[in-house]
Design goal:
Elements: H1 3-20, H2 22-29, E1 45-48, E2 52-56, E3 60-65, E4 73-76, E5 79-82
Antiparallel strand pairs: 1-2, 2-3, 3-4, 4-5
Length: 99
């Protein structure tokens, strides 16, 4: 076997061992996002507010107006995720049958 081929084979094996070892994987592990375990075991509650419905399970709370059914508020762990003024959830108007 030639020296170049032996050197290449040795480098390949060393690289394979290095990449498969946990020494390389451990530094990357701290970069992954941590997902908190759910500690709330509350059932979902549905509240009729007159002009809207509110669904709440202790983690996510959403409000839906009865007039149009669009999501008006979405709160996750006390933080408003979707501002009430946003109109991103509106359905496009139905196409006209006359073109």
């Amino acid at each position: 076997m030639s020296k170049a081929r032996l050197l290449f084979g040795s480098m390949f094996l060393a690289l394979a061992v290095l990449l498969s070892s946990s020494a390389i994987a451990q530094p990357a592990a701290h970069l992954l996002p941590k997902v908190a375990k759910v500690t709330v075991n509350s059932p979902v509650t549905l509240t009729d507010n007159g002009d809207s419905w509110t669904l709440d399970n202790g983690i996510v709370k959403m409000t839906v107006p009865k007039r149009d059914g669009n999501l008006s508020s979405l709160v996750y762990h006390g933080v408003e995720i979707r501002p009430a003024a946003s109109t991103g959830n509106r359905r496009p108007p139905a196409p006209s049958p006359h073109g």
